[in-house]
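Box 3.1. Reading complex inputs
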Amino acid sequence: MYKIILAIRYLLRRRITYFAVLAVALCVFIVVVVMTVVTGLVGDFKRKSHNFVGDCVVGTESLVGFAYYEDFIKMLEQAHFVEGVSPVIKSYALVSREQTEQNAGLEIMGIDPVRHSGVTGFGKTLYHRKDDVAKAFVPAYDVNLPGCVVGIDLWLIRTGKSGYLYEDTPAEVAFVVSCFPLTAKGAPAKAGAGEVNTKTFYYSDTSHSGLAHVDSSLVYLPFEQAQWLCGMAGPDKRASAIHIKFRPNVKLQVGCERIALLWQRFKQEKAGEKQANLLDIVTVQSWKDYRRASIAAMEKEQTMMTVMFGLVGITTVFVVLVVFYMIVSHKSKDIGILKSIGVSNANIIQLFSGFAILVGLLGSGVGAFAGWLFLLKINRIEDLLFEHFGFQLWDRTIYAIGDIPNQVELKVLAVIIASAIAACLAGAVLPSWRAAKLEPVETLQVSQL
Amino acid sequence: MSKDNFILRAEELYKSYRMGAAEVRVLKGVDLAVKKGEFVAVVGASGSGKSTLLHILGGLDKPDKGVVRFEGQDLRRLSSGQLNRFRNKKVGFVFQFYHLLDELNVLENVFLPAMASKGVIGWLVCRRWAKKRARSLLGQLGLDERANHKPYQLSGGERQRVAIGRALMNEPKLLLADEPTGNLDSATGNGILEVLEKLNSTGQTIIMVTHDERIAQRAGRIITLADGKMTHKSIRA
């Protein structure tokens, strides 16, 4: 009991301990804020990636695609763990705005909007047809024209944090999409006969996925039209990928493994078919693996931040060590007194360790509270800074970020607080051990007072 | 328990310290025997080894050679845990500079040895008794009104009486006082000696170290320490 009482009294009455508490509080504050923002950004990016892809993708990067996809879809639709499937055509095309000189090489994605919305978050990314996804490719100004959905950054300009200047109704604009159709063997399908397939589509909506690359380079087209453009239509139709959504209770890893088994079985069934060779280059990937290149970069940044702030933590350990060393030096007389009344070395270590835990608890409590308060107001603070000084943490005309993530994750907070307390304990170990080793006779000598 | 009524026996105690390259031999074969209820004063010049002897007798320090037996128990054979319990239960120290904990008030300083010997639950069980005993001791020492004061709010004499209260908290069989009046004026020091005499009259065994012959005269027996050895013993008439 005396250890608790003395630890509390040392904490309250030694002004130098306030510096240790302050160091811990500052460290926790910084780490909570940075980790919350970075974790929020990474989490947001993953969520958007998941929405864009669905749970699993069976597909190929080849522009030729793979055949017999409809047979595999039938197999998938019979699987009890699959909720929805969506075949997709992916390729590159030259997209020109009609009656202008503007053109760009963009990615095209052929989808059935209803099926694709059942598997991914496509429907929610639309602006005009959000509530009627079936009409995603139906321009409001003429329902008989073939429509296209363009990535929002291809059409609208970001105005800053408030988002985009949406139009009330879609503008009547035509895009000419030209694609090199390929045969099943990868040769130009129209060699010597104009070589490209060209079709005009009319702007019907924008898609805002929140993924910068997708929103700035992707044009969605109706599935059959895209299939024709890429040379994948015909008797042996081909597709680039099948996006799959699992039922809610199916774990991602388990679901993907089941799909892989189904695919192996399917491949064996089709082994003797004419275009069976195209099935060899098809892979089964979870959405995380499918988007690995992008997610890995974000996670790498997150890891780097964690390491950097780990180094900040080490600085805190050093500050606490110095403070404790000074406190122990000042308290050598107390240690001698305690030993003279029978207090053991272990109890001396416990006393100063308890003191360290109190410093850690108080410091991390103050830091976590200040961090939470700051995060609660971080977007308001950024707005004020932008209004008065034109400062933005991330320029919203460049970065696809809305509000700064400010949801403190309890798990992250618990890890930070536990680390701060552990850091204090680590900083107190050496001085505590030194305190325990002090000879009471030496500390109680008149010359030591 | 010793059969010969001696509470403490020290035989052939040697102790030396290293000061830089030189070795300072402080005790050179000290023998001492103290009976239950005795009031023994150890006198000697500064640096004669009085305090070192007291620390060795109280288990705060270890001799290089020699034996200290408390109630027949050889202190060398005690484990560190047993030695801690010995210092907590069997002996009470009173120092020249009081050595009170500044963070605790007077009452807390007095019951500190009782609290130190208990865990949280043990303390919760016995705290009423401990506080009652501490208040009783403060009453006997004339410090009833000072229970909630901090050590820095007390005079030197009051602080030393608090230190005596703390030393007596666990009812030790032996009280070891190291220059208890060395930091006090004559009148105040006299008051402290009266307290010690009163304790001794109730059966408390006391060993007091002092450099002042006049103060030593208040003890029942005087032992003189010079050049690390016992040179003279006298018994008060």
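In summary: Helices of chain B lie at 50-57, 80-89, 106-116, 120-140, 156-168, 186-201, 213-216.
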